[in-house]
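Hi! If you just cloned this repository, the fastest way to understand the data is to look at a raw example. We've pasted two of them here, unedited. The first protein comes first, obviously.
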Amino acid sequence: MFDRNQQRLRRARKTRAKIAQLKAVRLTVHRSNCHIYAQVVDVSGTKVLAAVSTVDPELRKTVMYGGNVKAAVEVGKRIAEKAKSLGIEAVAFDRGGYKFHGRVKALADAAREAGLKF
């Protein structure tokens, strides 16, 4: 009936609706087989304040393959650094409908260790 991506997006809508009620800046995650992406989105949900992904040339120098936990940890550290440089201390974590497991969990844990609160 529905494919996996439609089911994931349905789960993500619930999370985003709750975060919108809280009026919080959100850290959103998207993952593909080969890469992982993280963005800090403002309260209105219309403006991206900071973004990091394994596609970035500066990150490609340190991480050869973007689809593993090591790459997710590096992205988590860098997005936390960028957010803190913008003066953002606390965010709501939007896992994008993915399970909080593996690369998504590694990114979240690395961002927490780097000083981001959620």
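Ok, and the second one:
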Amino acid sequence: MSPEQSVERTLVVLKPDAVQRGISGEILARFERRGLRIAALRLLRVDRAMAEKHYAVHKGKFFYDDLVSVISSSPVVAMVLEGPNAIAVVRAMVGATRPHEAAPGTIRGDFALVGLRNLVHASDASDTARTEIALWFPSGVVEYTRDVERWMTEDQA
């Protein structure tokens, strides 16, 4: 990675519908094929307290209780992905929040159909990502490099 490119981190949660449908690996593979590096990864069952902390920004909205119920209904796969512009890259790959509005080729556009069954949560900004990563991975992330990264991120020949 060239010095002028900064590595950005983002939280991605493959929600219960992704895990139950058996497509977590396929979704994760899309992120890796794009060139994002996994910095942390875990399978967990989200309890109500964790779900409420994660969705605290939506407390009081009509869909808050449904968000909390869905994410705590079955195991999830949580991960931290990193790379240049990781937040924007992941958000573009995930697609519009409402699956029926998500473009074909996006994760939601290819795999999701309705409302809260939209498969993936992805941080929407750097401040959000920092807060969410600290909540989901309090022990931190793994620091490492891959030689292949220079073949994906170097701008000079």
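That's it. A detail worth noticing about the second one: The mean pLDDT is 94.
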